Structure formats: C-alpha cells, structure tokens
Amino acid sequence: MILDKVIGLFSYDISIDLGTANTIVSVKDRGIVINEPSVVAVQSEKYGKNKILAVGREAKEMVGKTPGGIQAIRPMKDGVIADFDMTEKMIRYFIEKTHKRKTFVRPRIIVCVPYGLTGVERKAVKESAMSAGAREVFLIEEPMAAAIGAGLPIKEPRGNLVVDIGGGTTEIGVISLGGLVISKSIRVAGDKFDMAVVDYVRRKYNLLIGERTGEEIKIDIGSAISLDTPLRMQVKGRDQVSGLLHTIDLTSDDVREAIKESLKEISNALKDVLESMPPDLAGDIVEDGIALTGGGALIRGLDKYLSEIVKLPVYVADEPLLAVAKGTGRALEEIDLLQQLAYE
Ligand SMILES: Nc1ncnc2c1ncn2[C@@H]1O[C@H](COP(=O)(O)OP(=O)(O)OP(=O)(O)O)[C@@H](O)[C@H]1O
Ligand SMILES: [Mg+2]
C-alpha cells in the first residue's frame, strides 16, 4: 500500500507530442490522457492582464469567432514555437490537467519536436517544459517518434521510411538501427492545405471563408486523387463583391486543385530523400513500403497519389493522428531507447 503510493509519486513521467495542431499527452503506464488542439484563448492586453480564458478544445472553438478583447492564439506555428510565453502556459495547463492532485515530485518529460529545430528552438522547448514544472526534459525528433508509433522495426538493420504530415510540418525520415539516417522537414502540411483552400475559394468563387472553414472543407471532402464519384459540400461565406452572405457548392475536385501545389512540394521532398538513400536501404523500402502518419495522411487517396509518383508501395499507418504520440510514449516506457534517442 505504502509502496504503491511511493511508486505512484515517481511514476509521474509524461510524454508530450507538442504539435502545431494538436497536443497529445501520455502518462507512463496509462497511455494517452490528453488530446486537444494547441490553442490558447487570452484576454487581450489592452483589456487588462493577458489572462488565459481557455486552452485546448474550448479555445479552438473560439478561433475566428472571438469578440474584441479576446484572442485565440496558436502558440506553435510551422512546427516551431512562435509564442514562447503561450507555449509555456499551454504546457503548464496540460501538465496540471494531467495530474489533478498536487505532488511533490516534478515529472520527467519527453517532448517530441520537429526534426531540424535550431539549437535556440530546442532550448526554447526545453525551457518551456522546465518552467512548466518538469524535473528533467528529453527531446525526441518527430520522424523517429512517428516511425516507432507506426510500428516500424526501427532497431533492425533495415531501411524504414516514414512520412509524417502534421499541421505545420511534413517530416520525412529514414531510420535504420535505431538512428535517423536521412531526414527532411518542410513547412508544408495541414495548415498550408487549409490556407490553400481558403485562397482557392476566394479566387475562384469570390467567397471569403475563414481558416476553420477551410479545414472543415479539407477534412470533409479533401482528396489527393480524382474520385469516381466526387464528394460535394455546401460552403457558406461572404461574397467579396457584394459583401453579402452567400453559399456555394464545392467538390472534392476543387479541393484537389486547391492543394495541388502543396502536395507537389511534399512529393518532391520525398523524391529528394529517396534519391539520397543508400542503395541497400532503398531495397528494403521497395519491399516494406512507405508509412504515412500525421493528420495529413488522412487526405483521401494520398497514399495512392504518392505511390504513383515515387513508384513504391505507400500505406497509411494505423491511427495516423496518434502515431507520433504513441511513439513518444513508447520512448518514455523504454528508458534505454530514451537515452539512445534523446539529445540535448
Ligand atoms: N480526416 C482528415 N483529413 C485530412 N486532414 C486531417 C484529417 N484529420 C485531421 N487532419 C489534419 O491533420 C492536421 C493535424 O495533424 P497532426 O495532429 O498530426 O499535426 P500536429 O502533430 O499537431 O502538427 P506538427 O506535427 O506539424 O507539429 C491538421 O491540419 C488537420 O486539419
Ligand atoms: Mg505532429
């Protein structure tokens, strides 16, 4: 009994997939405990203190709908911390929510960060977690976490290729013997798709819609390939010319056209990685294929689209939105793996 309590105090370690779009927190031996949008709603400074009104799902509901005086902030942008102060507050909020009761033991935290952060950016993430109450902070790179979460045999002497398409970044990683052999990160992912849809609807239909509507359209009818029966959706917005509210019919072909350039950037990055791959590892990819993770992997037909371009098998991993979080959580459970992967 007493021993349980003592152990309870120490098994406080948590892992955080600090994503541009979603933050997912797991606790050792308990799995995922928080999965919420990376959004913070604050009262603007001119109305007094920069007071936090909501974090996560509740705050995301406010994006684009906030009255004067309230601001919905996404502290992470393009896979990096755009607002240090808000990121820290968000991490602190999630840590406190994870452990409702007070405890003396500060947690060890492993945070998943995009590949290729600068030293300054890595330090910023670490400091955020430290000042949010961590005792010790480890970082793991996103392609590695994605590969672990996708269930790839990363420790074997075999080429494993994963493409994680998140909100802010697309990360491509080739992993063998537990290490990243090649990696590439581009700042083109879900958020860019949303913006591309917003731009397209404005250009083609003179209709003004917000980013959240752009995201809804992408999720509901977005497709990377031409569908036999195109999907349709009614979209409401403001007519740019008359200024009046207006409704249009949008199809999956519209969305495909809208996100075409972004998809091309992703396929070009993948081609670059494949071209620089050692031949032996490349042979493994021909057999095992390419795993897609991250929310962007859920765009209809993306696996087929990429497969046709690179002429290799491509598949969507199980629960792609959770792959990185699951991989980060696994690293937490395997201390040796953690020490091998974490870096300063
Ligand atoms: N069904 C879906 N179809 C298309 N896109 C989707 C779908 N579901 C979620 N998304 C998109 O996935 C993105 C979020 O994915 P994910 O949670 O993997 O990103 P993240 O980890 O927060 O970001 P990053 O890794 O870039 O920091 C968002 O852009 C969201 O719109
Ligand atoms: Mg991610």
Give me a quick take on this structure.
This protein is of the alpha+beta class and 344 residues long. The chain is built from twelve helices and 18 strands. A five-stranded mixed beta sheet has the order 3-2-1-9-10, with helices on both faces.
List the main descriptive attributes of the protein structure presented here.
single chain, 344 residues, alpha+beta, Nucleotidyltransferase, domain 5, 3 domains, five-stranded mixed sheet, 12 helices, 40% helix, flat, binds adenosine-5'-triphosphate, binds magnesium ion
* Euclidean distance between termini CA atoms: 37 Å
Count of helix runs: 12
Helix content: 40-55%
CATH architecture of the largest domain: 2-Layer Sandwich
Name the hetero compounds present.
Answer: adenosine-5'-triphosphate, magnesium ion
Secondary-structure map:
Layout: H1 2-10, E1 14-18, E2 22-27, E3 31-37, E4 40-43, E5 52-55, H2 57-61, E6 70-73, E7 76-77, E8 80-81, H3 84-98, E9 108-113, H4 119-131, E10 136-141, H5 142-149, E11 160-165, E12 170-176, E13 179-186, H6 190-205, E14 207-208, H7 211-221, E15 232-239, E16 245-251, H8 252-275, H9 279-288, E17 290-293, H10 302-310, E18 314-316, H11 323-333, H12 335-341
Parallel strand pairs: 1-9, 9-10, 11-17, 17-18
Antiparallel strand pairs: 1-2, 2-3, 4-5, 4-6, 7-8, 11-12, 12-13, 14-15, 15-16
Helix pairs in contact: 3-4, 5-11, 6-7, 6-8
This protein binds adenosine-5'-triphosphate and magnesium ion.
Description:
By secondary structure, this protein is an alpha+beta fold. It is about 40% helix and about 25% strand. It has 3 domains: about 1-35 and about 80-145 and about 325-340, 2-Layer Sandwich (Nucleotidyltransferase, domain 5), CATH 3.30.420.40; about 40-75, no CATH class; about 155-190 and about 260-315, ATPase, nucleotide binding domain (Nucleotidyltransferase, domain 5, 2-Layer Sandwich), CATH 3.30.420. It is built from 12 helices and 18 strands. The chain has helices at about 1-10, 55-60, 85-100, 120-130, 140-150, 190-205, 210-220, 250-275, 280-290, 300-310, 325-335, 335-340; strands at about 15-20, 20-25, 30-35, 40-45, 50-55, 70-75, 75, 80, 110-115, 135-140, 160-165, 170-175, 180-185, 205-210, 230-240, 245-250, 290-295, 315. The two termini are about 35 Å apart. Strands 3-2-1-9-10 form a 5-stranded mixed β-sheet, with helices on both faces. Magnesium ion binds near residues 17, 142, 166 and 324.
